[in-house]
Amino acid sequence: MSTSAEATQGIRQVARNLLRQGVEELVEASADRISGEEPSYGDAHVTLADVARQTRRTLSLTLYRLAELDVPAELSTAAYETGLRRAEQGLPLASLLHAFRIDLRLLWDAITHEVRDLENAERLAVLEQHTLLWEALETNTADVVEAYRVVEARQAQRLDRRDRELFKRFVATTERQPDALAAFAAHTTLRIDCQYSTFVVAGLSDPRETATVIRGRLRTNGFHAFVTVHKDDVHGLAHERNGQGPRAELLADASGDGSVAVVPAIGLSGVPRALAVARKVAAAHNPGSLVDVGQDPFGQLSASEPELVEAVLDYRLHE
């Protein structure tokens, strides 16, 4: 085998041979390794039969692509469907990609075994075409990741809608309907009797993106928090640690050109009133401003509109 083209045809012929022989041994070996190396499959309640079924389809798809044969219609979406299914089952993406790497090792071992009787030079020439196998599997992997992200986006949208509905009910009816407070506490796992820093970021062009950034910053800094978009502004609350909420600068840095208002709240039941004040304060200040009502509130409000001063004073006097 003297040319690269011949070596390419050689590895493609190996793939055709493996397809003719069937992939059942590979499927069984893959399912065994996945169940042994990836406990996440068990945690996600993915059955061995399910693993075998999807592995059979994705391995076959890889071999069809490597063999450069027309992919049967029933296999063309195998990798994409696997990504959808595993995401819906709650399997971590890292575990799914690890399973594909297991399949890669098994396929490479099978190819190596298939060419074992060739002359050394011919065998090495075929094996040097390993990038074709990587490319075939990489196409599958891209389909899997794309599908997984689609499900993640759908789930995030559903969760966002639920968050916003619960939050709207929480801030609007907590004083009249105690069950709204209990439902919000249960959903967020925020304690009812703790101190919170509440905040509102107003004047944003993309409040959802800002909410995502702030949510990530608070999580990274170890705060148990809830952040959502309400009335086109970012609203949030963070459980204070040792009497301290997140640094106001942290919120400001994540808020871009939005105006930020931070108001303390004693207990979860005090959060709706604190947020109402924060909304007024944030709306009354220029883009990029930061007002922490918990720090020298009277000095900060000396130049504010009378209505705003009255709202803050009323809140502070009735905390």
Automatic annotation (TrEMBL):
Residues 24-162 form the RsbT co-antagonist protein RsbRD N-terminal domain. It comes from the Bacteria. This is RsbT co-antagonist protein RsbRD N-terminal domain-containing protein. The lineage of its organism: Bacteria, Bacillati, Actinomycetota, Actinomycetes, Mycobacteriales.
